[in-house]
Amino acid sequence: MTAGRKQSGPTSKGLKRNLKKFARVLRLKPLYQEERASVFKDRWAAIASCLDGSDASFIDIGCNMGHFTAAAARHGLFAIGVDPMEEAISRARRLHRKVRGCGFVFLDVNLETVRLIPTVDVMLCLSVHHYWNRAHGEDGAWRIIGELAQRSRKLFFEPASSHGRYGADVPPFRENDEESIAAYVRNGFARVAPGRKVSHVKTTSSINTESFRSMFLISSP
Ligand SMILES: C[S@@+](CC[C@H](N)C(=O)[O-])C[C@H]1O[C@@H](n2cnc3c(N)ncnc32)[C@H](O)[C@@H]1O
């Protein structure tokens, strides 16, 4: 356990989770894509600028309210969003029900279920890495990310930049340091997806204690 971090047992963790869920259902706590709405257009424009006519299928892992999934469907892709948060998936289904070629799947992507994810042209894995780090440790998180890289021609990846978002197995980068995070992402993909090209796409402002999050594209050279 990292020094200085408060320890919480399984009961208090469960209670916290339920309180958060309750607050979200009552709309007292905004969903992530509401909190970071001001940079949505910039994030999507950066992704869209990397797409071309050969891209037809799209999966958004950790889709939250489904804004990227719906944007991809409007762009002409067959787009599926995946998320284990019930409130997020039901909001996404309601919000985007009239968007053609767009659907949402309720699923926790983990070391077992990642094998169910089909191969697509374009996949998003934006700001989900720290959840896997908390649930499965650094190695487990990168094993999942490696499986996702195998299942996509173009994978967009965005890690959280502050250590506080991760679990006890803190990732080896200097927090809130863009260069150090880029080196960490390059090293991670060199291990789990050797031979793939890693390019920086865009850095946008973030929320809470983080000033930014950087997005990368992992593609075939
Ligand atoms: C910080 S939000 C990011 C939302 C969106 N990807 C974005 O960047 O705007 C993280 C999302 O990942 C989802 N998530 C957490 N654990 C996950 C898992 N094991 N599999 C898939 N999604 C997960 C959360 O429920 C949440 O909606």
If you had to describe this structure to a student in words, what would you say it looks like?
- This protein has a single domain, classed as Vaccinia Virus protein VP39 (Rossmann fold, 3-Layer(aba) Sandwich), CATH 3.40.50.150.
- The N terminus is likely disordered.
- The termini are far apart.
- The longest helix has 22 residues.
- It has 221 residues and is an alpha/beta fold.
- 38% of the residues lie in helices and 21% in strands.
- It has 7 helices and 7 strands.
- It has a 7-stranded mixed sheet with strand order 3-2-1-4-5-7-6, sandwiched between helices.
- Strand 4, helix 6 and strand 5 form a beta-alpha-beta unit.
- It binds S-adenosylmethionine (SAM).
Please describe the structure with a list of short key phrases separated by commas or semicolons:
single chain; alpha/beta; Rossmann fold; seven-stranded mixed sheet; 38% helix; disordered N terminus; binds S-adenosylmethionine
Short note summarizing the structure:
The chain has 7 helices and 7 strands; from the N terminus they run H-H-H-E-H-E-H-E-E-H-E-H-E-E. The protein is an alpha/beta fold and 221 residues long. Helix 6 packs across helix 7.
Please report the distance between the alpha carbons of the first and last residues.
39 Å
Helical fraction: 25-40%
Number of helices: 7
Computed CA radius of gyration, to the nearest angstrom:
17 Å
Helix and strand string, N-terminal first? HHHEHEHEEHEHEE
Task: Please name the CATH topology.
Answer: Rossmann fold
Q: Give the overall shape, derived from the CA principal axes.
A: globular
Summed over residues and divided by their number, the pLDDT gives a mean of 93
Count of folded domains = 1
Strand content range:
15-25%
- Helix- and strand-based class? alpha/beta
Poorly predicted parts:
1-7
Distinct small-molecule ligands in the complex: S-adenosylmethionine
